[in-house]
């Protein structure tokens, strides 16, 4: 079967650049949106040029220019959006409604993957403010996609290793401590190149059409305490542990900047509620590592070894 042509929106972002790499690596004709208003961001420009050198094609278009977006979409079969969706990196989820309009007008897209890659927003109607805004906005985009009858796949990648594993799940920490660690509650509630690879695998797979794909590799379904134990074995030392109760954690959010409160709200649902794994995948979803067992995914142990 001929591989789909892919357009990636937000290709210079954290997950976007990994999607470009995976798409090229799996042999897809890959296009990356180049915004004309890139300004003096030389790092992004050089990254775009590096994509071009690797075989990607750059398409000049903007989410604020409808016709340019329609023209860009007409070049491809699949559109993957990786626009930022968290306040501390820029919250642009609702801008995808412009992309939905362009895809609807173009009429040629076989699959659209909106920017999700985290907790399944359909399961977060009870989420705390202000973190709830992210989930609500993603559901607005989902509603628009489905009302427009655009074929879709939603990717629920749970927690990125770069943000959770490296810091032993400590809030706002991406490298591990060697002396002590704070556990959320008792630390027993369960919790990227791999995410990108799984994502690209789905686009020509009929089993993922109009489904939510959950990325839950068995060896990486870990509680915070289990993550800490892996690190302790690697460094040959037991960390001093303290814990913070749910009441203390929620109280600590008061008075913090909006962006920090939003992130902490997400942490609450992950580490105190276990929102990533406290449900069974139903008929409207599939699990990525079961669909693609040939992908040799990075385990938490392998990831943490990088910090030795």
From TrEMBL:
Gene3D superfamilies, alphabetized: NAD(P)-binding Rossmann-like Domain, UDP-galactose 4-epimerase, domain 1
CDD domains named among the record's database cross-references: PCBER_SDR_a
Single GO MF annotation: pinoresinol reductase activity
EC nos: 1.23.1.1, 1.23.1.2
The entry's keywords: NADP, Oxidoreductase
GO biological process: (+)-pinoresinol catabolic process; (-)-secoisolariciresinol biosynthetic process
SUPFAM superfamilies: NAD(P)-binding Rossmann-fold domains
EC top class named in words: oxidoreductase
UniProt xrefs under InterPro entries: NAD(P)-bd_dom_sf, NmrA-like, NmrA-type/Isoflavone_red_sf, PCBER-like
Pfam families in UniProt: NmrA (PF05368)
Residues covered by the NmrA-like domain: 2-304
Subunit field text: Dimer.
Family: Belongs to the NmrA-type oxidoreductase family. Isoflavone reductase subfamily.
Protein name per Swiss-Prot or TrEMBL: (+)-lariciresinol reductase
Organism per entry: Arachis duranensis
Gene name as annotated: LOC107487050
């Amino acid at each position: 079967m001929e591989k789909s042509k892919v357009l990636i929106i937000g290709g210079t972002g954290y997950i976007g650049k990994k999607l470009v790499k995976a798409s090229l690596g799996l042999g897809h004709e890959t296009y990356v949106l180049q915004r004309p208003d890139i300004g003096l961001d030389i790092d992004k420009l050089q990254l775009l040029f590096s994509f071009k050198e690797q075989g990607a094609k750059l398409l000049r278009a903007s989410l604020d220019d409808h016709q340019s977006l329609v023209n860009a979409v007409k070049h491809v079969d699949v559109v993957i959006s990786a626009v930022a969706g968290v306040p501390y990196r820029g919250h642009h989820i609702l801008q995808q409604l412009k992309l939905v309009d362009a895809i609807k007008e173009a009429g040629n897209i076989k699959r659209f993957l909106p920017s999700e890659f985290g907790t399944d927003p359909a399961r977060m109607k009870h989420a705390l403010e202000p973190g709830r805004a992210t989930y609500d906005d993603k559901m607005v985009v989902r509603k628009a996609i489905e009302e427009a009858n655009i074929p879709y796949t939603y990717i629920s990648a749970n927690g990125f290793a770069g943000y959770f594993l490296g810091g032993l799940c400590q809030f706002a920490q991406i490298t591990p401590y060697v002396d002590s660690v704070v556990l959320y509650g008792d630390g027993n509630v369960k919790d990227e190149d791999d995410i990108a690879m799984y994502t690209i695998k789905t686009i020509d797979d009929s089993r993922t059409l109009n489904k939510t794909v959950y990325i839950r590799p068995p060896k990486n379904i870990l509680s915070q305490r289990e993550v800490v134990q892996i690190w302790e074995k690697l460094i040959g030392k037991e960390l001093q542990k303290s814990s913070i109760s749910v009441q203390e954690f929620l109280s600590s959010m008061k008075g913090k900047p909006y962006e920090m409160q939003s992130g902490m709200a997400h942490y609450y649902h992950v580490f105190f509620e276990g929102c990533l794994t406290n449900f069974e995948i139903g008929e409207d979803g599939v699990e990525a590592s079961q669909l693609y067992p040939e992908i040799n995914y990075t385990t938490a142990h392998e990831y943490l070894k990088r910090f030795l």
